[in-house]
Amino acid sequence: MTQIEWDRIPMVDLTEELTFIREPILDKMTDVVDSGQYILGEKGEQLEKQVADYIGSTYGIGTASGTDALELSLKALAIGPGDDVITTPFTFFATAGAIAQVGARPVFADIEKDTYNIDPASIEKAITQNTKAIMVVHLYGKAANMQEIMRIADNYDLRVIEDACQAIGTEYNGKRVGSIGDIGCFSFFPSKNLGAFGDAGLVTTNQPELYEKIRGLRNHGSTKKYHHSAIGMNSRLDEMQAAVLLVKLYYLDIFLHKRKESANRYTENLHRLLKTPAVAQEQEHTFHQYCVELAERDELASVLDQSGIDSAIYYPVPLHLQPAFDYLGYQKGDFPIAERAAKRILGLPIYPMLSFQKQDYIINTINNFLANNG
Ligand SMILES: *Cc1c(COP(=O)(O)O)cnc(C)c1O
């Protein structure tokens, strides 16, 4: 047994990267304190511009969360009661939650077995005359098949919202995700690849009308103070979070590179023994999560746990089988590929500062488990 110098290995350790960024973040936060401007100020505007530039979109609009970014996007596209939005059942709840929240109907389409992203062929089968939009998720940081999805959207005159909450910086055919559809939505939840010190989100678009609409809707439908042209919500990205995010955005590519290095190391050491993530091109996966797939998933999770290693299931219950969506009338067996993935997927610890030493310990623990169970 090797000597272990830590208590447990968590899924994410957000404190380790502070070594590099604590000072500049505290400096920028002090600027905000001294400015007296805490909501809709200079830092928020800087962040909107810089994130839009980074993504390759014309406009950025800060929001209070990724969930709100999704909801505001649907509202800006005038999607509501009577409308269907096609999405994946294999995602975080918020994707479909936002669709239901604006009064539209989430319509699920099954996923591809190797990428875990929505399958364009099943999108096409789910289209009806009520379909208004496709909400694509780039799950775990891996780009969905946007070429096919945009082709389908063009053919059927559907809008495309990219839920890029897990995929900031991911590239697809030379573009960054979030700049390909009509609207891109990002989350800066602390554990996301670009994380704030609280809740925050952002919308990107190239379309000036959508930009104006979303900017109004996030501020009670007002672009001029106390004049309201629509009924919106209170969903702004505050100056403190903008201060944190401006510093972290500067380091984002370095941190994404380190994630990819960790992911490659996992894959090199594990791909012979279990199913590792599919990556066709270097840039198309930024590894918000590193998930492996195996039949003995629960046994491996419990061995990891006993060895002091956290792991997590993203996601144990596909959305069409969630009690909250009973009213949609879906049943077990409707989306077999998503259901199978939910039974077999396991996320391993991954974060920019994950040390080789810790990673080797994780890899060895998995190898030992598979040697005894394979
Ligand atoms: C995190 C996440 C969201 C929601 O973002 P919040 O900022 O937590 O509201 C939406 N969709 C996906 C795929 C996510 O991973």
UniProtKB/TrEMBL annotation:
Xref: Pfam families: DegT_DnrJ_EryC1 (PF01041)
Organism superkingdom: Bacteria
Gene3D superfamilies recorded: Aspartate Aminotransferase, domain 1, Type I PLP-dependent aspartate aminotransferase-like (Major domain)
SUPFAM superfamilies linked: PLP-dependent transferases (SSF53383)
Cited InterPro entries: DegT/StrS_aminotransferase, PyrdxlP-dep_Trfase, PyrdxlP-dep_Trfase_major, PyrdxlP-dep_Trfase_small
GO molecular function terms listed in the Swiss-Prot or TrEMBL record: transaminase activity
Keywords recorded for this protein, A-Z: Aminotransferase, Pyridoxal phosphate, Transferase
Keyword ATP-binding assigned: no
Family (UniProt): Belongs to the DegT/DnrJ/EryC1 family.
Protein name: DegT/DnrJ/EryC1/StrS family aminotransferase
Organism of this sequence: Lentibacillus salinarum
Taxonomy of the source species: Bacteria, Bacillati, Bacillota, Bacilli, Bacillales
